[in-house]
């Protein structure tokens, strides 16, 4: 699947759940390429903005869409990496803000 096909597939499945791609299409395509690279590297699409351990069970929380997307978008209008946002965020009704890392430190640095 090329990056455009991945874009269309994820757009359809995630918008139905109320999650939208960031209005910055260039950034979205870069992140999708990162997901594809991680798929080739690890066999699963883990977040390109986080360090993966090459252990599917350990990394389960950062397989896209990550476990933290729901609370991030609910609180900030955007997920940690900025791939998924709310419609309100895209419309400029929610200010762009720094989204702090929710992944526990032991998961972030524990298995490197």
Structure report:
This protein has 112 residues and is mainly alpha-helical. It has helices at 3-15, 25-42, 56-59, 69-76, 87-90, 105-109, and strands at residues 20-21, 84-85. The chain is globular, with a radius of gyration of 14 Å. Helices cover 46% and strands 4% of the residues. A two-stranded antiparallel ribbon has the order 1-2. Helix 1 (3-15) packs across helix 2 (25-42).
Radius of gyration: 14 Å
Low-confidence segments, given as residue ranges, are none
How many separate helices? 6
Give the helices and strands as they follow along the chain: HEHHHEHH
β content, as a range? under 5%
Q: How are the elements arranged and paired?
A:
Elements: H1 3-15, E1 20-21, H2 25-42, H3 56-59, H4 69-76, E2 84-85, H5 87-90, H6 105-109
